[in-house]
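Per reviewer request, we include the raw input and output of the structure prediction for the construct analysed in the revised manuscript.
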Amino acid sequence: MTTPTALDRLGELVWSDALDAGAHSSAGYLDLLPPPSDQPQRVAQRAMNNPLVAAVYQGPWRWGQTVLYTGITPSAERRRAARALRLDAAHTLLDVACGPGNFTKYLGGQLSADGLAVGLDFSEPMLRRAVRTNIANGVGYLRADARTLPFDDGSFDAVCCFAALYLVPEPFKVLYEMLRVLRPGGRIAVMTSCTRGPRLVRSLSVKMAARNGLHGFDRDDITSVLWNSGFHDIEQEVRGISQFVSATKS
């Protein structure tokens, strides 16, 4: 009997109508979307769809971004993420806006031997890079719209999004979708932007970021959503212009 691959198992989680609408896996990941050229994009989104950015993202781009935003290295950030998600008790994980999969593969390695880690992104260059450099047993990649995650409620034991929620269109819609597909008792972890300083400075920085398709989150934006959604064990660490937030779904 043939052992199901990660893509086979991922396909079992995805809504059947999404699969029936022309899904394919010819590039090594499951693709549910039309070409990026068919979708409106702003500066930030175009950058993530650039093959040159995808080529350097896992190395100098991500390293510089992490150190600038958080003051810690990417390896330390991955370890912090694994601790916050409590992956020793998790079997399935969803990494939203996974980029080239450097977090997806690492976190997938912390799951049980038969666990499944799913990396989701909208960028073809990023996912092609993920398939080349960050594939492993129990790790599968999906091209889909994070604003309408193609999964049933409570499909995952852990859900995360690192250094990307401020890049996506309609970030709060994405956040609520992440909460929806997380099972009760599951853990969420998010690392994203955090505006600092007086109110006027924060307001100006948010407006400037928005012009380039970025979202500047206030310190209470993420935690308020979690609190109002009934989450508990909410923890927040603010470093530089970033915040790392984790919580448990009730």
